[in-house]
């Protein structure tokens, strides 16, 4: 027993583990500092109507404008933001930023911007945060945007937790007038009955299905199944990660309504969207 205890003791001082803990504390402090210094920027990626490729909305995607490392993508810091809880203030900042941007576009280009939607990602941690619904309501009120123009993207795994409080929070968000989308749809295991129970409006077909749509036999079938599921439940479908003309036309053949991907535009600074909105005005 003494020997085992000794070993356990030793494990507490495992230098690799200790270094890891220090690194995490460092990263956390760095992320906190970046938030205080407002080093984050929001980029926007167009979402288009597939038949016409007209802009119907944008997705807000956060980036870290790091003083040394340059522009850092969300996959490099969102997981840490989630595990440390910093995603709550960061997510609130993104939401406010995106709503302010939409309000500005609506003031500048009322005709075209009045019709677009702003999609914002919500992580599970944010969703579980007590004050979420009040915060969304407050940001909508302070920016004055039409709640119907706001789409909150949530993940399938969040829905699969399927608790009364999940359903309640979704319902309260819907009561604000916002729309809800399931992001990366198809990567989880939600069943028809799950989907029916939640007040969602939009399914975003995960990029992994779009990737192999013209090459791997299964994928077109899966993408088609998702589109049909959407139709049966009267949900809109958005295909993510469209990179080729072939994927674009296959998705149209399958009856997918909307799309997003490098073929149309990569995420970029707000100005790129402003020029689309400004151009649309003269039509
Ligand atoms: P997501 O919400 O599924 O966003 C779509 C991701 O696919 C974006 O990556 C986008 O740049 C990328 N993408 C779009 N079209 C294409 C394409 O044609 N080809 C390829 N290869 N990729 C494409 P990004 O910006 O790196 O974001 C990654 C993920 O980080 C997002 O996935 C989302 O889950 C998360 N994220 C980004 N911003 C936020 C945020 O403000 N809050 C939260 N909670 N998560 C965020
Ligand atoms: Mg998303
Ligand atoms: Mg996605
Ligand atoms: Mg994703």
Automatic annotation (TrEMBL):
The keyword Metal-binding does not apply. Keywords: Membrane, Transmembrane, Transmembrane helix. Residues 24-281 form the EAL domain. The keyword Membrane applies. This is EAL domain-containing protein. The chain holds residues 493 to 775 of 775 of the full protein.
